[in-house]
Amino acid sequence: MDLTAVEGLADLVFAETEAQRAQAMRQYQGILGKRAEEWRLRLIGALALVEARIDFSDEADVPEDLIGPALHAARELLEEIEKTLQDAHRGERLREGLVVAIAGPPNAGKSSLLNRLARREAAIVSPHAGTTRDVIEVHLDLGGYPVTLLDTAGVRESQDPVEQEGVRRARERANAADLVLWVVDGGAGNAVAKRNDSKESWLVRNKVDLLDSLPKQPRESGTDFEISALTGLGLDRLVIELARFASEFFSTGESVLVTRERHRAVLTQTVDALRRAVALDGPEELIAEELRAGAQALGRLTGRIDVEDILDVIFRNFCIGK
């Protein structure tokens, strides 16, 4: 097994959801390793052309125009690898999970909602404002996708330095989350809905069971929800929409190749080397050095680095010394 397959096996062992298991299995079976080895061999072929021109230019079998075909191959590889990296980090995010922050003012029922979704008493529930001081994390499997729920401190002005730190952390984690459930006290009737400034924010009116006229069915309006964390009213629709959001968030229409930050770093190094190579007009030695750096980076991705590969290609394709 190459390094990517070993990493896939490790991910398979630690997979918690079906989507994570499927991604790990694809990596274990070589979806990235085989592609990376194909790229490496093509890059070695381009490098061999440049090396042959440098070291064996006096041989009759070595054509004069080898740099052009080598750079053409490098440009094709550059486009392919750049396209692979344009995946919005979906693979890494699937390993880590979708982050959903439950935020809002104090006493809106955020901790009760977390406990309902987690189906256990993960957070302390109290009628006193400011009970939640630190961020509480709960990991869920929604529709086969990993989701991390964050219960954050109630956002309000406070003179208590500990609560101030909790509010600061709440805002920080909410702004970094993929989705924010902004929970307000819907039972108060005049609750002010304050959306978060993150990329995606849903309004959740909790405690609708306290309304004078209890709705038999919560109103359905886009990403606005009416629920009761106490009775469970409206929670089914919220869970369904969360699972749908997770599915759309991780869905790309095709299998993601990059699943670890190490993969992305190595492929980025390869792209940088190829960009420098295709931008050079000469000399040939500098082009060869950049192509060699790209090939070595791809070799580190799979753990296969062999300096003899270049000479093998040269002596196989040209009648040198015969």
Task: Explain what the structure shows.
- This protein has 322 residues and is an alpha/beta fold.
- The protein has two domains: 146 residues, Four Helix Bundle (Hemerythrin (Met), subunit A) (Up-down Bundle), CATH 1.20.120; 154 residues, 3-Layer(aba) Sandwich (Rossmann fold), CATH 3.40.50.
- Helix content is 51%, strand content 11%.
- It has a six-stranded mixed beta sheet, with helices on both faces.
- A hairpin with a 2-residue loop joins strand 2 and strand 3.
- The radius of gyration is 28 Å and the shape is elongated.
CATH class division of the largest domain: Alpha Beta
The secondary-structure class comes to: alpha/beta
- Specify the helix fraction band: 40-55%
Strand order of the largest sheet: 2-3-1-4-5-6
Please work out how many helical segments DSSP would assign.
Answer: 11
Low-confidence stretches: none
Question: What is the N-to-C succession of helices and strands?
Answer: HHHHHEHEEHEEEHHHH
What is the CATH fold-level name of the largest domain? Rossmann fold
Domain module count: 2
CATH architecture of the largest domain: 3-Layer(aba) Sandwich
Radius of gyration: 28 Å
User: What is the CATH homology-level superfamily of the largest domain?
Assistant: P-loop containing nucleotide triphosphate hydrolases
Strand elements, count? 6
Distance between the termini: 37 Å
Using the alpha-carbon principal axes, give the shape. elongated
* Strand proportion: 5-15%
Overall mean confidence score, pLDDT = 80
